[in-house]
Structure formats: C-alpha cells, structure tokens
Design goal:
Strand content: 5-15%
Structural class: alpha/beta
Number of strands: 9
Shape: elongated
Distance between the termini: 86 Å
Length: about 375
C-alpha cells in the first residue's frame, strides 16, 4: 500500500508541479462555483469565470508538459455554460430556482439600498403608520453596514431591531442645539422651524439654543402647548448626536413615542438639522415627517428652509418617510419612492415594495 507521503512525492517532484497543482485547484474552484450556481445566470460574470477556469486548467497541464485536447477543453466550457440553464427547464426545479432568484433579488436590493442611503430619499406611504413602520425596516436593513439614527414615532422599534447593535435614547438624553459647521445659521434655521411648529417667538427659542439653558422656556408667559413641547426637546445637558451613536455600525433609536404629533415633527426636523451640521458625516438619519413637508399653507420662508435642509442631507444621506401630500417636494430629494405603488418594484424590503414615486401624484413642486 502506497503511503500518503510517497504519493505526494510522486505528484510533486519540482516547484513546477506545485504551481501546476495550484493553478488546477484554482481553475476547478472557479468552475465548481459556476456549475453549482444554477441561478441567477450572471452575464458577463458567468462566462468570464468559466473561461478563467479553463485557462487556469490549461496552464496547469501545459506547465506539467501535458498535451491538451482542445475538443475536451471546449466540451468543458460549453457544458459549464449550457447545462445549468437547461436544468432550469426541468419540471422539478422551477420552485427551487424561484426561491434562489428571490434570495438573489433580496441581496441586490440590500446592496442598492446601501448605495442609495448616501443620498437624500423621500418615501411616501398611504399612512403615517406605514411610514413609521417602513422607517424601522429601512434602519434594520442598513444597520449591518452603516451607523443609523432612527427617530421612532411608534416606540416599537427596539423590539423589531433585536439582534442588531441598538442604543435607545429619549429626546432629553440628547442635546440637539449643537451648531457644528453651520455656526449662527443653525440657530436661525432651528428657531424658525421650531417657532412654526410651536408658535413660540423664534428669538426665545434661539436664546435657549445658543446658551444651552432651557430655563428661558420656563416663563409662564410663554403659551402652551408650545412651551411644554420645546422643554421636552431641549432638555438640559445630554449627549451630542455623534457621541450617542454605536461606534462602528448599528442604530441610535430616538424614542419619540411619548410626544404629541407636533413634538414628533419637531424632533424629526431637529434631528435632520443636527445631521447636516456635520461637515464629514458617517451616519444616515431615517425619520418619518409630516409638517411642514405636507403643509400646503406653510409660509414660503419655511418652505425655503425645508428645501435647503433636504439638499444638505446628501452629505452622508438621509431618508424621510411621509404621506402622499409630501410628494410636491420630490424635486428636492435625490430619489423619490412610494410604498407598494407598482407591480415591478425597484427595491423589496420585508413586506414592502418600493417603487419610483410618480410625480403626477404630487402635482407641481412648490
């Protein structure tokens, strides 16, 4: 009986034999991958891999001084190219092929969504409940690769995000008055937007933001419910947004579930505004949003601030989910999508089909 060592010595007699065996192994590996992968038939990836495999095996045999029968080599190439597609036509394979195709489509959607997440995106849904749920699904899909800030309107995001790196914060745990690279213009923009939502004088809001002292808002002469709304957002102390994020990849969930609708909107706007204060941003914000995005009666100055804010999101990415009334702002976003609005979606996400947003639904841009 020949021992393994003796057999190895017979096969490998020189460095040329080592190179030959290495090339043969690499060629067989490329071939095996393409033969096993019945679907999808990736063009041009499949022919390239098979031709590369054949070239490696040919080189391996020539290095060892063997003659190569080109008819046999051509047979290997044609068999590898044609047999898997033919197998798909057999009656016992369609179900399996369809399953693999769906899996491949899901992977492609994830890759596409990851690339898209570095842009500004508007996704409209038929209701805010759907928009809120979709925001959590988007965060779940992107959190394996990116740091995400998710404004959670419903409060159920942590339960749905189990298994991921998640940090949860209340609005009062964060300080959202950091001006960053925007400087004084941050206070002006934040004051205008918050004044619009709370009906509080913007100078009072600006002073609270500049000083970091929310006691300015304790004055009983400031009307309710705006005073309580702002106090809940501008709590004393708290971490900066980038300090509260997971270190590498994961999600910072800002729990807005206890706030009224106006408070949710205000928190979403402040979070988006905080994101654009970072000149070099390595995280994306995902948030539902209603007013002023959906308010046709919003003053022109507020609409101008919204256009500026949306255009600034592309420095790192930002995804806003809303209802069809937000569609007039589609032209300000890099990409407009809608939930379940077509039969041929460009992305599939959990049970959602994300389709191109039809501009006819939103009318003319404001």
């Amino acid at each position: 009986m020949i021992s393994p060592l003796s057999l190895l010595k017979r096969i490998i007699r020189s460095p040329r034999d080592v190179l030959s065996l290495t090339l043969m192994a690499a060629g067989l590996l490329f071939l095996a991958v393409e033969v096993i992968r019945i679907w999808p038939i990736l063009i041009p990836q499949r022919p390239v891999n098979i031709l590369l495999s054949s070239s490696l095996m040919y080189s391996s045999l020539r290095i060892r001084g063997r003659e190569v029968n080109y008819r046999h080599l051509l047979l290997v190439i044609l068999t590898s190219l044609l047999v898997p597609p033919i197998l798909l036509m057999l009656p016992f394979l369609p179900e399996r092929a369809g399953e693999v195709e769906r899996m491949a489509g899901a992977e492609e959607s994830e890759e596409d969504l990851l690339a898209a997440s570095f842009r500004s995106i508007l996704v409209v849904c038929d209701s805010m409940a759907l928009a809120t749920s979709l925001a959590t699904s988007l965060a779940s899909h992107l959190a394996n690769w990116r740091r995400i800030v998710l404004v959670d309107w419903s409060g159920d995001a942590p339960e749905r995000l189990k298994g991921l790196e998640v940090r949860v914060a209340k609005p009062e745990d964060l300080w959202l008055g950091h001006p960053g690279n925007l400087g004084p213009s941050y206070y002006m923009t934040a004051s205008l937007l918050l004044s619009y939502l709370s009906d509080i004088n913007p100078s009072v809001i600006g002073e609270a933001l500049k000083t970091g002292d929310p006691s300015f808002l304790q004055d009983v002469r400031i009307s309710e419910p705006g005073r309580s709304l702002l106090i809940s957002l501008l709590g004393e102390g708290g971490s900066l947004l980038h300090e509260a994020l997971p270190e590498v990849a994961g999600i910072l969930v800002i729990d807005a579930s206890e706030l009224p609708v106006a408070g949710k909107d205000a928190l979403s706007l402040l979070t988006l505004l905080q994101a654009v204060t970072y000149e070099k941003r390595d995280f994306a914000v995902i948030t539902p949003l209603l007013s002023p995005l959906t308010d046709e009666r919003a003053p022109s100055r507020i609409r101008d601030e919204m256009r500026w804010l949306i255009s600034s999101l592309r420095r790192g990415g930002g995804i806003v989910t809303s209802i069809p009334h937000a569609a007039p702002f589609i032209g300000e976003f890099d990409l407009g999508l809608e939930c379940d609005g077509c039969d041929a979606p460009i992305y599939r996400l959990d049970s959602y089909r994300l389709c191109p947003l039809q501009s006819r639904r939103g009318g003319r841009a404001p």
